[in-house]
Amino acid sequence: MAKRKENLTSEIGWSxxxxxxxxxxxxPSEILGEMNLGDLAFLLLKxxxxxxxxxxxxxxxVVTLVEHGLTPSALVARMTYLGAPEALQAAVAAGLSGLGxxxxxxxxxxAKMLSEALDGVTDPDLDAIADRLVADFAERRQIIPGLxxxxxxxxxxxxxxxxxxxxxxxLSGDYIALIQKVQxxxxxxxxxxxxxxxxxxxxxxxxxxxxxxxxxxxxxxxxRSIGLVGHVLEERENPISAEIWLRAEExxxxxxxxxxxxxxx
Amino acid sequence: MAKRKENLTSEIGWSxxxxxxxxxxxxPSEILGEMNLGDLAFLLLKxxxxxxxxxxxxxxxVVTLVEHGLTPSALVARMTYLGAPEALQAAVAAGLSGLGxxxxxxxxxxAKMLSEALDGVTDPDLDAIADRLVADFAERRQIIPGLxxxxxxxxxxxxxxxxxxxxxxxLSGDYIALIQKVQxxxxxxxxxxxxxxxxxxxxxxxxxxxxxxxxxxxxxxxxRSIGLVGHVLEERENPISAEIWLRAEExxxxxxxxxxxxxxx
Amino acid sequence: MAKRKENLTSEIGWSxxxxxxxxxxxxPSEILGEMNLGDLAFLLLKxxxxxxxxxxxxxxxVVTLVEHGLTPSALVARMTYLGAPEALQAAVAAGLSGLGxxxxxxxxxxAKMLSEALDGVTDPDLDAIADRLVADFAERRQIIPGLxxxxxxxxxxxxxxxxxxxxxxxLSGDYIALIQKVQxxxxxxxxxxxxxxxxxxxxxxxxxxxxxxxxxxxxxxxxRSIGLVGHVLEERENPISAEIWLRAEExxxxxxxxxxxxxxx
Amino acid sequence: MAKRKENLTSEIGWSxxxxxxxxxxxxPSEILGEMNLGDLAFLLLKxxxxxxxxxxxxxxxVVTLVEHGLTPSALVARMTYLGAPEALQAAVAAGLSGLGxxxxxxxxxxAKMLSEALDGVTDPDLDAIADRLVADFAERRQIIPGLxxxxxxxxxxxxxxxxxxxxxxxLSGDYIALIQKVQxxxxxxxxxxxxxxxxxxxxxxxxxxxxxxxxxxxxxxxxRSIGLVGHVLEERENPISAEIWLRAEExxxxxxxxxxxxxxx
Lengths: 265, 265, 265, 265
Description:
By secondary structure, the first copy, chain A, is mostly helical. Helix content of chain A is 60%, strand content 4%.
């Protein structure tokens, strides 16, 4: 049962007739024109402005999450818009609803694996930790989150670039080193290519930025909502979802309708 | 009925085993580390990179839309998280669902009013257009979108700053001039303070950026999804939605329960 | 701006340690085992139990709205489940999001047209009203809501059965008579088959039941949520949404990918 | 990665110009006027019509799930409607989004516990199984799903009535007997009142009806969507969500605003 509270509090922000404050900063004078959209997201997650280096790295990882072509969530947003063109927000909301365990789970899982292995550990033995992690996942017969990709083989082209950006900005530390060691051992153990995919890279870099693992799904939600607006606007100009629907409906009718089943006679 | 299409097409992007392309740009080499989150949103809406000036102005207007304190949509996201803490994306989706005519309508309305008045008009007579608009809305007994604010009086502190950023970056033109003239005439006609609110400023600046008015609701959705992630994460650390719910439920029980109605005897 | 309230009230229901009350009825003793699901929906909309005749008619119209095959909203629910199989509720929520102006609008529109024409009118001249309605819609170049169907021609097979059920239960009055007269005149004026479709029949019968027109969209939401649960459960056993997605994605890659555009070279 | 399919199939239904078929039944002649809303839900879940006894029992359990007063999901629907009154479907969708592990989890958990203990077991020793279940949950320090209630003590008034309806209709078997034995042992072991709550009763009765445990969350979704339509319609007539929001916002401003923090000086 929920615990009762005497006072409702929130540190996110407040406004009065002549002031608007977000996380302790005056919106008009300290945020507008000073911070880009990614920086404001960082402020909301970390409760402070990013350094210029953090800004570049954080923007890069969220930017990576915006657009992945005609994904199921893009199709969901487009098909929702088909029925409710007056409610763009509902189309985006519907598209976000499917960002669950299957599509954002591995990013969350990678961040969790790395932060549970390293947070609070001084002078960690990365080789030993990597050995243990690979063995643990093998024993549990689980996929190691953040490794492998159905399309991008042998290398996910986003990963080396993201790691490069992190290194250029002084944010390549033990978390990135650990996932690279995990990858080497996993490839050796399984005898196949297991590239660190973008979700693995983002999980590691999030940890380098000090973001708790449970926040990482939120990065996907932030990024994808922007991408979904893009899909809805293209659907408006170049509608394709009705055609996708009608083809599927016709195929079902052919395969299961009265002519197929004899029930219609 | 939906028209049929022979071919499904989408210009947003594609990926192959070693390439990922978004709106004609190579994601790893031309986007990551080069564009911030607001710039990528601009790319998806305008199909080209922003200039540095456009980047500053566009980021400023979307940043304005991220966070407005404990709004109904923030409460919706927090209360959804209360029941489904495993599904942060569903909480944000629920929060976005209420960004309809009441809360984002005036921004869309302001952009529509300005662009319908000025798009394709060469050498417009702004004074005459402003007179006509104020008269038209008065005749239809409608509120002029983008003017007036229940809290921020006599000035919405975001508006002068947004207009300043637009001017500093060479993006203050007829749309901004027109809404300012509309405001002057509306205040004179109605005899009361009618500040250009943030939605009016954003509607005007969107038009200066060449964004079609029907896109403007999408800016609100992009910005607010980031703000809602912030609310869900604070709810996780400092839960308040259960208390808000329980207080309301208890008050209903007191006002309408068996002791109030005698039905429980 | 929202008006303030001193007291929060709700007449829907309340519970105490040993009682649960819904709209004035004791849930365990007066509802459970006594009312079916449609009857409880009626109770929530009309604030009283249906008569046996009302129960049959109301259940029939909501039942009509449950299942329409592989609609866009069914595809949306299935594709959302693909990404978040742990959250069946999110899949149904996503599917409901698209029940907007395009797919439920005509039902709402038919109920509105009929109730605005007849509510509060004693001894209405149905022929004259039908003439006027057909002329008004023609003048505004609008489709008459509730008439015409892309597939079910010349007769929507649900309509005569719904009208028969209404008549058998003493609920066929002026609203049904009016939409039939509107249909006759519209067919004569336009010279083509314009069957009263199921949404027109439901709009008329809702009005016979005394349901306000703005409630009618809610009937669609109630019914469809049940149908969407059915689709998600079939998707679990016989997944088809991934195939629909992958076919579309591959076609886009072929039509817009590097080989098509030369950008990948 | 998703497996490919050569053919898309669906057994739910199909339509041709003059026929509409749902799960093998002709909608106009075999469903409309013949089956109530709960019966159609049963058809979609079980792929056959219910017997009269099954109809009474199934309707009773779904009816139980419709309305629980001013829950968080009801507040979510009402607050979404506040911002988007043009989109009732979005309000219901938002309200459903929170039916996750916290509020429907125990129903799913009870059904899972009982079906995993009994499905496929001939001649089960219910006493031994109950002992084992109580010991297992105690060892894992987990709450037994379906037992205990924060308000309804010592008895949840829905439970005896639901069990009575099941018994009257010949559907009280081993699943109900087992949860009753689990309750007795759990109360003895923990030395406190642990009533079988409505979710426990519904979990058990669902199993008696042969519904797989993973379907049980869908029953909650079906029922609640009907209840949420009721809340949105009451909010339309008697709006309370704005007041709840404004009270919370004012309290935050008092506790965290400029006067509290000194940041506004």
